[in-house]
């Protein structure tokens, strides 16, 4: 799609630094309470800290050691990753091999039959002689009805099909790179937001202890805050793991190992797509899948033509010099053969070829409808995500932000409780988290729709010949 | 110029000598007073008292400074609990009975004008939605009458015939109930039971004879309108002036509302109440009751809270409960109190002789009624070196939290468990201070008068004149310090801090 490359160029100009630091929020300021210094003598304390349920330990079980690789702090742009993929993704090379394979078939199919050189001994022992004919003959088949040219044409046309499929494969890889790029970028931003939410959960935990000291919550209240805190810590670990997964998927599609690092990009969409009908019209005009199917239709036309002339008999001429041991004189043999198409006029194969042709017409239609079906889903997801993202951007986040600020101001003026601020803060950061997901979904769908709905950058490159095709005959024709 | 303004202007011009520059400054307070008049003996004299002007009986009054051991000029009980003058029970004010009832004064409220039409005092009362500034800058949307909440005071004399034309400007129907009056039933204002509701834009005429005397009020007989503030005084002065005569007759309507922070409309469905008003204002915006030393004072206090009773406490004085809204009680039924529970829709009349100079709290004793928008003390405001400004500076992220509870106070259960009132801006403080009634009070006094609270100021004649009858500047704390100097022990007195907001971390 023509807008794709310009969009990528735009992407390159944008730089949104996404923090990929794996430092957990609690490491900076939130202690477990064991290192406090009370100025009041211990024996005067009437509410020892030990009576409170302890703060839960920071999760210490399994930890993905690969996450420490971000210490390298490498930074990757989309353009750089696309270049890497172009050079390293195996399916792109596979697709190129498919073209070469079809071209080789075309070469082979058009080759003229070789002459056959024979030694012939006939009627050996006739009258006790060595034979009536002992000699060399040469046989040459003369192909008629442009069979070889048609065969070569057919495979050249299939090579064109393979070219379209290779372009499709490039889109699959490119789309997957972009998709994983935005997923990784979103995961990075989610990680930042999870750190903010963890800080709020930490504050909730501290606030619960303050409330407990004032008789305004109970021990179960502190325990609930502990649970909430631990769940947010797990959410942060989950966000870290999601980031690692997204990044590793990205590197898998690229086809080479790169260390975990920052993703340099902008998650926010820069434009809106045209209408569904406009997108669909462009899709059926330019989709590599449709173009490949149409090219395949041309090849199938040629196949029909090719099979239609198959019945035209080739002329096989055979002859050569020999010696007649009965008569003791040099003699010559000569024959011309012609297959009489009385019973086998290749009618079955012609019929099969015509059916293949008809099937291909339906295949084009099927692909168009499949694209419509996939586009419907993608467009719906895109529209929903964009609608949500737009409203979150224009209304929900600003409103949450204003509500948070108003409550902060009210708290400053001693008019609301701190737990209310924490709720507003959680709501704001959660909304931002949701907005990240919406932007991510918009970007992914935008990428797919721009990239002809092609995905699967690690699926084997498609062949131009569907299974069970007429090409099951041994000699390509 | 209104009669009040005339009087004020006259007093300004005629009292310069009496004022004598007494309050020009702290140093001036040490100078001998120039006020003239017979000195009144003071008990428990301290050094410096001799130089102060002594309380005196006005020349045009024939009352005494002391009745049976009770002094109108110093805290005292009297000699005998059975005496008519015990605790000042029947000690008259300076005003004579012949002068008629003392003018009724409801601080911060207006009076409803009337004119005689066909032998009746005709009033026009308009129920309507109004805006009322509970505190400076806190304008609340409530219901009231004639642009005010509570509504304007209807003031009549026993024996009058009244005609009240009620024109409903509310968007909903209403009626008006004349609380406590024994009137013809069709004017009782009970919706549907006695009359059809007054639809929006429509009028209804109530007309009846007043044979009662005492403290009454009117209110909408629609519960949610009551919770929204639809109430007003209806004072009936007796044909025979109550004896002993009072010099001051104040009216205070106590109300409660639930109004969320960042909201101006009351939620009348709530069972709890977080805004408290006296005559439509909340402390410290309530206007103090300023009286002269030795005057007999009546306070009519009416509780129009939707759901809660109010234990009313007056500092520094013992008052007589002389009646409720039903009728003035016979003197044999009067009881002395420091604190009296005033139930919902009850009015209680207090009478006392203001014999103890100073600024005295007069408030509902319910702890939660002593502030508005009560908040729990958790979060940054109790954490060291944490300010809400940090949060406001960048809302994209938030500051980390320090989990260490290293304030020694945390070793004490319940710490810190205090009530924080709303933060008072400089402009709010300026509005609160910009009233004559509060001049000379201790610096930062507004931090102590919150919610359902006001002050009774008992001022010596010269100080009263200075504060209430002149426009002269009065330094913060100067009046209070002068009272301490005259009546207390100045050696033990520490002036209020001039600029000290509580050390809130917000």
From TrEMBL, chain A:
Q: Which GO terms describe its molecular function?
A: efflux transmembrane transporter activity
Asked whether the keyword Coiled coil is assigned, the reply is yes
Signal peptide span: 1-25
* Keyword Signal in record: yes
Gene3D superfamilies named among the record's database cross-references: Outer membrane efflux proteins (OEP) (1.20.1600.10)
Any one Pfam family here would be OEP
Q: Which InterPro entries match?
A: MdtP/NodT-like (IPR010131), OMP_efflux (IPR003423)
Query: Which keywords belong to this entry?
Result: Coiled coil, Signal
Q: Which residues form a coiled coil?
A: 222-249
Tell me its family: Belongs to the outer membrane factor (OMF) (TC 1.B.17) family.
Record-given protein name: Cobalt-zinc-cadmium resistance protein CzcC
UniProt organism field: Aureliella helgolandensis
TrEMBL record, chain B:
Region ranges (Disordered): 24-63
Q: Which residues form the Plastocyanin-like domain?
A: 135-240, 270-378
Record GO terms (molecular function): copper ion binding; oxidoreductase activity
Alphabetized UniProt keyword annotations: Oxidoreductase
* Composition bias, Low complexity: 24-34
Q: Does the keyword Oxidoreductase apply?
A: yes
EC number(s) given by UniProt: 1.-.-.-
InterPro entries, per the entry? Cu-oxidase-like_N, Cu-oxidase_C, Cu-oxidase_fam, Cupredoxin, TAT_signal
Name recorded for this polypeptide: Multicopper oxidase mco
């Amino acid at each position: 799609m023509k807008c794709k490359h310009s969009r990528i160029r735009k992407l390159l100009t944008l730089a949104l630094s996404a923090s990929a630091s794996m430092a957990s929020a609690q490491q900076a300021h939130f202690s477990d309470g064991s290192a406090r210094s009370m100025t009041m003598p211990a024996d005067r304390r009437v509410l020892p800290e030990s009576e409170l349920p302890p703060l839960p330990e920071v999760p210490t079980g399994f930890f993905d050691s690969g996450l420490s690789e971000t210490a390298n702090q490498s930074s990757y742009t989309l353009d750089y990753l696309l270049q890497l993929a172009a050079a390293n993704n195996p399916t792109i090379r596979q697709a190129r091999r498919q073209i070469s394979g079809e071209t080789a078939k075309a070469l082979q199919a058009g080759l003229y039959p070789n002459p056959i050189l024979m030694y012939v001994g006939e009627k050996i022992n006739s009258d006790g002689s060595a034979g009536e004919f002992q000699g060399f003959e040469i046989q040459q088949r003369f192909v008629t009805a442009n069979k070889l040219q048609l065969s070569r044409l057919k495979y050249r046309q299939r090579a064109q099909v393979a070219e379209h499929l290779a372009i499709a494969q490039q889109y699959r890889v490119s789309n997957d790179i972009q998709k994983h790029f935005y997923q990784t970028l979103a995961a990075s931003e989610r990680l930042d937001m999870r750190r903010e939410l963890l800080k709020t959960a930490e504050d909730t935990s501290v606030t619960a202890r303050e409330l407990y000291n004032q008789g305004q919550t109970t021990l179960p209240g502190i325990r609930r805050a502990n649970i909430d805190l631990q769940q947010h810590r797990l959410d942060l670990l989950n966000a870290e793991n999601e980031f690692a997964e997204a990044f590793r998927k990205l590197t898998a599609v690229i086809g080479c190992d790169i260390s975990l690092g920052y993703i340099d990009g902008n998650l926010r969409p820069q434009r809106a797509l045209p209408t569904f009908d406009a997108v669909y019209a462009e899709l059926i005009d330019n989709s590599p899948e449709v173009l490949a199917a149409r090219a395949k239709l041309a090849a199938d036309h040629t196949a029909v033509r090719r099979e239609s002339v198959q019945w035209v008999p080739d002329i096989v001429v055979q002859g050569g010099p020999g010696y007649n041991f009965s008569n003791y004189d040099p003699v010559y043999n000569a024959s011309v053969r012609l297959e009489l198409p009385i019973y086998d006029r290749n009618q079955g194969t012609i019929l099969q070829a015509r059916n293949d042709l008809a099937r291909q017409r339906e295949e084009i239609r099927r692909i168009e409808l499949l694209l419509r079906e996939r586009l419907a889903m993608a467009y719906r997801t895109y529209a929903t995500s964009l609608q949500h993202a737009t409203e979150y951007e224009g209304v929900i986040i600003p409103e949450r932000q204003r509500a948070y600020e108003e409550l902060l101001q009210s708290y400053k003026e001693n008019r609301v409780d701190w737990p209310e601020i924490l709720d507003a803060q959680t709501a704001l950061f959660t909304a931002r988290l949701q907005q990240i997901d919406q932007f991510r979904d918009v970007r992914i769908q935008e990428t797919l729709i721009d990239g002809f709905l092609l995905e699967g950058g690690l699926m084997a490159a498609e062949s131009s010949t569907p299974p069970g095709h007429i090409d099951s005959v041994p000699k390509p024709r | 110029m209104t009669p009040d303004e005339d009087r004020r202007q006259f007093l300004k011009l005629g009292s310069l000598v009496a004022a004598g520059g007494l309050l020009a400054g702290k140093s001036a307070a040490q100078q001998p007073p120039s006020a003239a008049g017979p000195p009144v003996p003071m008990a428990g004299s301290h050094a410096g008292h001799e130089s102060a002007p002594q309380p005196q009986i006005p020349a045009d009054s024939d009352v005494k400074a002391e009745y049976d051991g009770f002094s109108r000029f110093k805290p005292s009980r009297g000699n005998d609990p059975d005496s008519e003058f015990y605790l000042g029970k029947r000690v008259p004010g300076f005003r004579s009975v012949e002068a008629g009832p003392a003018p009724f004064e409801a601080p911060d409220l207006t009076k409803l004008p009337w004119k005689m039409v066909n032998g009746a005092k005709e009033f026009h009362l308009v129920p309507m939605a109004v805006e009322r500034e509970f505190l400076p800058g806190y304008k609340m949307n409530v219901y009231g009458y004639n642009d005010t909440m509570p509504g304007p005071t209807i003031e009549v004399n026993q024996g009058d015939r009244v005609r009240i034309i009620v024109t409903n400007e509310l968007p909903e129907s209403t009626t008006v109930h004349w609380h406590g009056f024994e009137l013809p039933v069709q004017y009782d204002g009970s919706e549907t039971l006695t009359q059809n509701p007054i639809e929006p834009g429509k009028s209804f005429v109530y007309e009846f004879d007043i044979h009662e005397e005492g403290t009454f009020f009117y209110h909408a007989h629609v519960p949610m309108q009551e919770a929204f503030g639809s109430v007003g005084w209806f004072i009936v002065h007796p044909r025979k002036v109550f004896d002993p005569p009072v010099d001051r007759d104040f009216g205070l309507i106590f109300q409660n509302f639930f109004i969320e922070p960042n909201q101006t409309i009351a939620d009348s469905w709530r069972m709890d109440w977080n805004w408290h008003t006296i005559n439509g204002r909340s402390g410290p915006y309530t206007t103090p009751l300023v009286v002269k030393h030795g005057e007999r004072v009546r306070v009519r206090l009416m509780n129009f809270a939707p759901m809660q009773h109010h234990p009313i406490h007056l500092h520094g004085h013992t008052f007589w409960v002389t009646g409720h809204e039903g009728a003035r009680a016979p003197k044999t039924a009067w009881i002395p109190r420091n604190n009296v529970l005033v139930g919902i829709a009850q009015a209680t009349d207090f009478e006392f002789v203001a014999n103890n100079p100073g600024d005295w709290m007069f408030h509902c004793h319910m702890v939660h009624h002593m502030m508005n928008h009560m908040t729990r003390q958790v979060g940054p405001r109790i954490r060291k070196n944490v300010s809400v400004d940090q949060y406001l500076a960048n809302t994209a992220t938030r500051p980390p939290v320090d989990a260490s509870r290293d304030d020694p106070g945390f070793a004490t259960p319940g710490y810190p468990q205090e009530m924080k009132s709303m933060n008072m801006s400089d402009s709010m403080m300026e509005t609160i201070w910009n009233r004559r009634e509060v001049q000379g009070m201790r610096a930062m006094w507004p931090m102590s008068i919150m919610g359902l609270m006001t002050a009774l100021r008992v001022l010596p004649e010269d100080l009263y004149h200075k504060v209430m009858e002149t426009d002269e500047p009065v330094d913060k704390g100067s009046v209070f310090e002068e009272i301490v100097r005259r009546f207390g022990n100045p050696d033990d007195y520490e002036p209020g801090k001039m600029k000290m907001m509580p050390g809130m971390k917000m």
